[in-house]
Amino acid sequence: MIKIGILGGTFDPPHLGHLIIANEVLNSFDLNEIWFMPNQEPPHKKKLNAIKDEDRVKLLKLSISEHPNFKLELIELKRSGPSFTYETMKILKERHPDKQFYFIIGADMIEYLPKWRNIDQLVEIVQFIGVNRSTYNQKSSYPILYAEVPNIEISSSLIRSRLKEGKTIQYMVPESVRNYIKEKNYYGSQ
Ligand SMILES: Nc1ncnc2c1ncn2[C@@H]1O[C@H](COP(=O)(O)OP(=O)(O)OP(=O)(O)O)[C@@H](O)[C@H]1O
Ligand SMILES: O=C(O)c1ccc[n+]([C@@H]2O[C@H](COP(=O)([O-])O)[C@@H](O)[C@H]2O)c1
């Protein structure tokens, strides 16, 4: 069976935290690929629309370009409304009967898992892998696997607020992403 890790996210913008957890999980669980899956509307937080969907995709493409096993999955951007993971994973499983899916989440999402749409059915069709994230609790009563990753205190909100304040984001996102954000003046950067 081909083993695929899915990293679902808003990626507004993508940052090194995303890349590091993806790479750690890829190697620790001997997965074949990681698919980065940007959502249309995050079910649990407000969509900011600071940049367009195609801009998030462009930044993601730049972010993953250096890793041969990192791929993009755009299924959720082709569907309108909130991107409920259960709906998405049902379709992906039908499309790829030869693949086993692992859904990667940070500890902030582990805490939120009881509120996910159809969570009891979802844990039957995908294997969750939870990674630690700063102050959040990593333990869950759901059947998830755990990966220990270096604590990365970087978030998309931190990147956005630093750009707004005119602070540098060097070494927090790939250099190509930093240059592109600067060139396009995204998130109030100059
Ligand atoms: N630094 C990090 N450490 C561990 N997990 C992370 C980290 N950053 C993001 N994740 C996980 O990656 C997934 C996608 O995250 P998302 O794209 O929402 O980024 P974010 O940094 O959490 O964004 P925001 O700050 O806007 O809420 C989520 O499961 C999240 O928990
Ligand atoms: O299906 C749900 O109810 C659900 C609730 C919250 C988050 N998710 C998914 O979890 C992933 C991480 O969310 P986010 O918004 O932190 O990027 C992303 O793929 C979301 O669509 C899914």
TrEMBL record:
Q: What class of enzyme is it?
A: transferase
- Keyword NAD annotated: yes
Which pathway is recorded for this entry?
Answer: Cofactor biosynthesis; NAD(+) biosynthesis; deamido-NAD(+) from nicotinate D-ribonucleotide: step 1/1
Q: Which residues form the Cytidyltransferase-like domain?
A: 6-162
Q: Which GO terms describe its molecular function?
A: nicotinate-nucleotide adenylyltransferase activity
Catalyzed reactions per annotation: nicotinate beta-D-ribonucleotide + ATP + H(+) = deamido-NAD(+) + diphosphate
Is the DNA repair keyword given for this protein?
A: no
Keywords annotated in UniProt: ATP-binding, NAD, Nucleotide-binding, Nucleotidyltransferase, Pyridine nucleotide biosynthesis, Transferase
User: What are the EC numbers?
Assistant: 2.7.7.18
Q: Please state which protein family the record places this protein in.
A: Belongs to the NadD family.
Q: What is the role of this chain?
A: Catalyzes the reversible adenylation of nicotinate mononucleotide (NaMN) to nicotinic acid adenine dinucleotide (NaAD).
What protein does this entry describe? Probable nicotinate-nucleotide adenylyltransferase
Name of encoding gene: nadD
